[in-house]
Design brief:
Layout (H helix, E strand, L loop, with lengths): L6 E7 L2 E6 L2 E6 L12 E5 L2 E6 L1 H25 L7 H11 L6 H8 L3 H19 L4 E9 L24 H14 L3 E6 L7 H12 L4 E5 L5 H10 L3 E3 L7 H7 L5 H14 L2 E4 L2 E2 L8 H12 L3 E6 L12 H14 L5 E3 L10 H7 L4 E5 L3 H4 L12 H15 L9
Parallel strand pairs: 6-7, 6-14, 7-8, 8-9, 9-10, 10-12, 11-12, 12-13
Antiparallel strand pairs: 1-2, 1-4, 2-3, 4-5
Helix pairs in contact: 4-11, 5-6, 6-7, 7-9, 10-11
Length: about 425
């Protein structure tokens, strides 16, 4: 099975195309290599970007396998969407969202605190918004962690510079081979992630991106605070998306957890990447020790205000002897509240949430999430990229589990669109 299905170009306007998936329309950006794209062509799109053009014969072969399944998944998704609450305050807030009115900070904080039946109602309502705005689309990205070396000492991070651990760096050849294997498995979006490792020269990364881009995939970069000239060169080479989380909206907390760095510089990087043309995914940690009352709501509002293309947030996983465990309910509520704040949001259910519950991936998708990542790093290296304990999961097992989950809840691997 592919982790994206082809669609037919129904129309082109400027640098955007309308793509038809069995009558369902999505909008995606054209890359330079798609300059000769014509109405009627068949394409793969990921993250709102057309990443490959394929022959009509190849597309129809794949679509023939998908047509009945596509509509069956839509019906399944419809059957699982439910709304309703007996709580008048909650009902009033739902009506406010339906009317397109913004929620205040106090209202967001109250929603984030919900538990029990009220929390279930919040998540069901958020899931219904997801279905209305983005249908049953679910992007499944592969992630390749090509180096666990890092020059930073972020206190929340398992690969920080001062931690005594076995380190590795994949060669350019290994990175390209890992990407080729992921592409063969059907992934059409790949995240290339490392610590802030300046060992890799711009020339090396540019060559790798150029080679991987020819495989017909969307390339996400997650390489930290590198020089803007490098980011521009990588964009020119074919990278089109970047994952840059700010972790906390509190400047003092940011500098405490990321010694020597300032929040304003991180936010400036995000804005500069947007100017270059990158699709940017950003977000925060939930439950950082010392997180103040209302800080989670502030994090959500900052993400919304940045106008980025995807939300990525997950729990702080204790590594320093803290006894308090992350709160799964708070994480799930955060997904739902983001959906209420930004109805068209593309919300990643992060792998870190799975350390809280084996059902976290399912619960996150049913709370309003619509994107996933699967680690496709070669096993000998994946075991060493220990951002947090319990991170490693065999790729083949995760792929099988994810496919089963998507079938169970009626999600299809079509592009989310712009």
């Amino acid at each position: 099975m592919c982790y994206a299905i082809p669609g037919r170009v129904a129309g082109i306007s400027g640098n955007k195309a309308t793509i038809d998936y069995f009558g369902e329309k999505k909008t995606a950006l054209l890359l330079d290599r798609n300059a000769k794209l014509e109405t009627g062509n068949y394409v793969y799109a990921q993250g709102g970007v057309i990443v490959d053009v394929i022959s009509e014969a190849e597309a129809k072969k794949t679509l023939a396998l998908w047509e009945k399944r596509f509509f069956a998944l839509k019906e399944k998704d419809d059957s699982l969407v439910a709304t309703g609450t007996q709580n008048p305050k909650l009902s009033a807030l739902f009506a406010k969202v339906r009317a397109g009115k913004p929620l205040g900070k106090d209202e967001l904080n109250w929603l984030l605190s919900l538990r029990g039946q009220d929390a279930d109602a919040l998540r069901s309502f958020a899931n219904s918004l997801r279905r209305e705005e983005l249908k049953n689309s679910c992007c499944v990205h592969g992630i390749i962690e090509f180096s666990n070396h890092c020059g930073m000492n972020c206190l929340y991070c398992g690969i920080r510079a001062t931690r005594n651990m076995e380190r590795y760096r994949m060669t350019e050849k290994e990175l390209v081979a890992a990407a080729a294997n992921a592409a063969k498995l059907g992934f059409r979006a790949l995240v290339l992630q490392s610590g802030e490792d300046k060992f890799y020269s711009g020339e090396t990364l540019v060559r790798a991106v150029q080679k991987i881009r020819r495989m017909g995939v969307l390339i996400f970069l997650s390489i930290g605070e590198r020089d803007l000239k490098l980011y521009q060169a990588l964009y020119d080479a074919g990278a089109r998306a970047a994952l840059v989380r700010f972790e906390t909206s509190n400047p003092a907390s940011y500098s405490r957890w990321r010694p020597g760095r300032k929040l304003e510089d991180r936010l400036r990087l995000i804005r500069e990447l947007q100017k270059i043309g990158y699709l940017v995914s950003t977000g925060f940690l939930i439950g950082l020790p010392g997180e103040g009352e209302g800080e989670l709501a502030e994090n959500i509002l900052l993400t919304r205000g940045l106008g980025t293309d995807m939300y990525s947030f997950g729990p702080y996983i204790p590594r320093n002897g803290e006894k308090e465990k992350p709160d799964l309910d708070r994480c799930l509520n955060a997904i739902s509240v983001v959906r209420l704040v930004d109805r068209k949001a593309k919300i990643l259910v992060t792998t870190a949430m799975e350390t809280l519950s084996p059902e976290a991936k399912r619960l996150g998708l049913m709370a309003g999430g619509n994107s996933l990542m699967i680690d496709v790093t070669p096993e000998k290296y994946s075991r060493l990229y220990e951002l947090y304990q319990g991170k490693y999961k065999p790729a083949k097992e995760e792929i099988a589990k994810t496919l089963a989950l998507l079938n169970e809840i009626g999600r299809a691997p079509t592009d989310l669109g712009l």
